[in-house]
Design goal:
alpha+beta; elongated; 13% strand; five-stranded mixed sheet; three-stranded antiparallel sheet
Length: 523
């Protein structure tokens, strides 16, 4: 199909060139002697007729020769059956034998009265000829509606075999709906792209260096804000460890974020510091007040215990006196019983007071220990928070550096591609004798069954990404002093690198607070 079309176009072009070339030449010599007007007109007419006659003969011979060549071209480029094709076989007068068979993975088909037939690598005409030769003179017994059998002898001209369904093609890459497509004769790359929904412009926009640079710029600014927060938190933790109550308001001077945001971050951390210190002082005051109340309660209980002990002693002496009088018969027995009850009651009260006094003393000891551990627990918590904050700070700094390098590269690349048009590139992977052959194609390239079309959208002038990366890396390492004779990529990268700040390395506290931190940690 494509070979005959290309042959005809070449024939037309060749005949046109030959006519132009022959028309520009003289077909007979110019007479040397002067002629009369009548003889000159006869001479010119004869010359023109002779030239036309020669051109006609030349065109006829050329067309005959090229027609013969073009008749041979399709035969040499005829389609070959392969795995996945569907062949429809029909036999006249025998509708029972009409069916479609698929070429199996081993390149063969199965058909009644033929068995297994190897067809892979053959042209459709060769397959039809082979099936005709195999079915010729075969007798098919046809059962009639009345139960009788009718013997039908198959003739070669009654058998037809043709490709009913070709192998699908596959479109992959920057298209909206990549995947499998049914093949149609004379199908071109343009038609395959159209059936795939056109180009995937949305994905291209998402990967556009201009938009990607804007996204990275937003992420970069957000990372700087988190960086400032973590740095302020580190300063607050070191200030608490150093037993200070004020936060340095100039700790975010070198951070490239708006001043209002800096002031807000410092204000929040300073308020957090004041709140933590105030809560710590309230906790200490509460524990001390609780210890003082326990001292007063112990004093009262001690006095009550002494009084109860005196009361028990008096009740015991009274019981001894009553027992002596009861032995002499001066007092009745109920008085003895009452005295014993009084001794028991006073002893119980003394025991209760002693137990309450011991409980209050134990609570006082626990609160005193809690007051002693309050500073240690607070310092341990601050050191743990400081370690976590430093880890997050280091991670943020690494992210900032990575995002800054990406921003530098994409920003330089966006300056290069801004204003350039999209250029689709097509690569057709076709099965050959030595494997898959990669063919560079255009819109009008005719496909064959089983082809894989890879579509890639690129910017027209952006092809040397390695050179861009090298120039970007060079711009990051060294700022140029003059750009009069530098390439565009280096100039763009250098211009962008000036707007991408580098995260500062001073992430720790001052030397005094650091020494305090180390001394507290060693304790």
């Amino acid at each position: 199909m494509s070979g005959s079309r290309n042959c005809m176009s070449s024939t037309r072009a060749l005949v046109g060139k030959m006519i132009e070339r022959r028309a520009s030449n003289d077909f007979s010599p110019v007479p040397q002697a002067p002629l009369s007007n009548f003889r000159m007109r006869n001479y010119q007419a004869n010359t023109t007729a002779f030239g036309v006659f020669r051109i006609g003969n030349l065109i006829k011979s050329t067309l005959l020769m090229l027609g013969f060549v073009c008749s041979l071209a399709p035969a040499s480029a005829e389609y070959k059956i392969d795995v996945g094709d569907v062949i429809e076989i029909m036999v006249a007068r025998v509708p029972e034998l009409q069916r479609r068979v698929s070429v199996r993975s081993d390149g063969s088909i199965s058909f009644p009265m033929l068995g297994t037939l190897l067809v892979a690598g053959l042209s459709p005409s060769e397959v039809e000829a082979q099936i005709k030769a195999s079915l010729a003179t075969r007798v098919f017994r046809q059962r009639m509606s009345d139960g009788r059998e009718n013997a039908v002898t198959i003739e070669p001209d009654e058998v037809t075999a043709a490709v009913a369904q070709y192998r699908p093609i596959y479109v992959n890459g920057d298209v909206s709906k990549p995947g499998e497509q049914g093949f149609r004769p004379s199908m071109t790359v343009r038609q395959a792209v159209a059936l795939s929904g056109g180009y995937d412009i949305l994905r291209l926009r998402n990967e556009s260096p201009v938009l990607l640079s804007a996204d990275l710029r937003g992420e970069y600014e957000s990372l700087w804000t988190d960086f400032a927060k973590e740095r302020a938190q580190l300063s607050r933790l070191n200030t608490e460890l150093g037993d200070n109550d004020t936060l340095d308001e100039k700790l975010l001077t070198d951070v490239p974020i708006p001043p209002t945001r800096k002031a807000e971050i410092v204000r929040v951390e300073a308020e957090h510091l004041r709140t933590e210190l105030a809560d710590y002082e309230r906790e200490k005051t509460f524990l001390r007040h609780t210890i003082k109340q326990a001292d007063e309660q112990i004093k009262v209980l001690s006095e009550q215990n002494t009084s109860e002990e005196k009361g028990v002693q008096a009740d015991v002496e009274e019981l001894q006196r009553i027992n002596e009088l009861f032995g002499k018969g001066s007092l009745p027995s109920p008085r003895v019983t009452d005295a014993r009850r009084a001794v028991l009651l006073s002893s119980t009260r003394k025991l209760q007071t002693s137990a309450q006094l011991m409980q209050v003393k134990k609570q006082q000891d626990d609160i005193a220990r809690q007051l002693e551990r309050l500073d240690d627990l607070r310092r341990i918590k601050l050191l743990q928070d400081l370690q976590d904050a430093r880890t997050r700070f280091a991670q943020l700094r690494a992210k900032l550096q990575s995002t800054g390098e990406k921003l530098l590269y994409t920003a330089a690349k966006s300056q290069l591609v801004r204003g350039n048009e999209l250029k689709p590139e097509f690569t057709v992977i076709r099965k050959g004798k030595s494997g898959g052959d990669r063919i560079t194609a255009d819109y009008e390239f005719e496909l064959e069954p089983g082809d894989v079309v890879e579509v890639s959208l690129r910017f027209d002038d952006v092809a040397g990404t390695d050179n861009l990366a090298q120039s970007t890396e060079f711009a990051m390492q060294k700022q140029p002093t003059t750009v009069d004779h530098e390439p565009a990529s280096t100039t763009a990268a250098a211009a962008v690198s000036a707007s991408v700040p580098v995260p500062p390395r001073d992430v720790g506290p001052s030397s005094a607070s650091a020494k305090a931190t180390n001394s507290h940690a060693s304790q």
